Amino acid sequence: MNYLAIDTSGEYLTVIAKHGERAERVFRPDCLAKHSVVLMEEIEGALARAGMTAGECDFFAVVVGPGSFTGIRIGIATVKGLCFACDRPALAVTSLDCIAYSVEGRVLSLVDAGHGAVYACAYEEDKSAALAPAYMTGEEAAALAGTFAPYAEKQLFIGGKEAQRADVCLGLERAAETCAANAKPAAQLAALYLRKSSAEEMRK
Question: Cα angle at 79 between 75 and 81, to 5 degrees?
Fold first, then answer.
């Protein structure tokens, strides 16, 4: 299996180039507002180190949200361009998937949405969704933490409970390989937004 997977949905940047059994992984935790500057360089570097070209990829995977509105758009636009140029399908992965697939068991994936709120999704052991992705308060998420183990990409407290740290780079790799059969034409790729952007909220 050959593929390229990227995640620009958060403060970090993940790029994975998989060429058969060989994998090149890039994880940069310091990319807030820098995705557009460093993304293509990291993609080119990962592909070169994996010993393949974009045209050799079977599909391209991208995290479509929830997370940074700007980051999500950058990632989707980049993968669409690669898909159209190489005539390959696109696989949509969520930031919540990246958390869930990094650990075993029933998981409550959490992404910080600011102001005490979170994006959340509960997963069964087989990673099927027990609760659809949603925007909720920390207290609402904490009520689910007794049934599902809470995990997040960074230090995060919900209702006084601390979520465990997840390896989102590992999660993206596992999600891409497990869900590869779900890749679709790039034209169908769309962002997963669970709330309005700050700009939209301010226009009210």
Answer: 120
Count Cα atoms within 13 angstroms, Cβ side, for 129.
Answer: 10
Per the structure, the complete domain to which residue 161 belongs is given by: 103-165
* Same-domain check for residues 85 and 9: yes
- Assign 11 to helix, strand or coil: coil
E-only strand ranges, the chain? 2-7, 13-19, 22-28, 59-63, 90-93, 107-114, 117-123, 129-137, 149-152, 157-158, 161-162, 164-165
pLDDT at 203 over 80: no
Q: What is the mean pLDDT of residues 185-195?
A: 96
In the numeric block, which tokens belong to residue 184? 């679709």
CB 130 within 8 A of CB 122: yes
In degrees and rounded to multiples of 5, residue 76 shows phi and psi of -65, -45
More confidently predicted of 202 and 193? 193
For residues 59 and 130, state if they share a domain: no
Q: Tally Cβ neighbours within 10 Å of residue 126.
A: 7
Pair 89, 180 in one domain? yes
- Provide the CA 52 distance to its chain's centre, in angstroms: 23
pLDDT in tens, 126-143: 999 999 999 999 999 999
